[in-house]
Amino acid sequence: MALVPFPGPQTRSDDELEPQGETPRSPFPGESAEPDEPPEGRMTFLEHLDELRKRITHAVVALLVGFLVAFAFVQWIFDFVFARLAADVPNHTLIYTEPGEAFFIYLKLALLCGVLIASPYIMWQVWLFIAPGLYANEKRLAVPFVFFASSLFITGAAFAHYILFPFAWRFFASFSGPALQFMPRVEPIFGLYVKLMLAMGLVFQLPMLIFVLARFGIVTARFLARNFKYAVLIFFIVSAIVTPDGSFVPQVIMAGSMTALYVVSIAVAWIFGKKNPDANG
Description:
Elements: H1 14-17, H2 45-72, H3 74-85, H4 101-130, H5 142-173, H6 186-203, H7 206-215, H8 221-226, H9 228-242, H10 248-272
């Protein structure tokens, strides 16, 4: 005896459910809606590690090239940087007490400038690492990402050179007097300079970091605004760690700049973040 299926509502195939030739609307004007996955699909863990290895290798090669270029002009760079370092020192002179100390200062200075020179290419490698997880319409932001990330890193370094380091250095030099002569060694002074330069260069990447996290839907503008007070607390803690001896004025300048960048980051997340009405922030 044959079994006859019980009549009922017929299920429609996936092709019938999705009208051919129509694309869902996107929350961004002029963009198509994002599919469930990027066109490249999902990468395995080993593929992510291999991609990370390639990007790090390319970045290191670019850093080496930048180092060689900077070392060719290291004397000019030295004069420019040490005019700032020795500005508030008695007789405008720094001392060194180890035989190879001055030579390694030159090498470190060339390496620091090499980071600045190679920063656009390094940011490009960062973009190539995160690009497989982005949609086709988001990959059009590659050039703006590299431009703004590099510009912000260099701006942060300039902020440390022209504003943050002079304030910190004048504070320490202000204790010099007839009974207590300030005669600093070059190594700790240059170490403080490099520390502040790299720290502010990374701090100024905050808007770009929030841009990436917002595009992936990890953070929202509402979430950032709601946790503003905790962010300010974290900024002051980080500033106290980075600035030497917890100096008050440099700490306030650094924390204040981080707070201003956080406000900019909230605007970036609001403009570029995923428009998901179901997100709870």
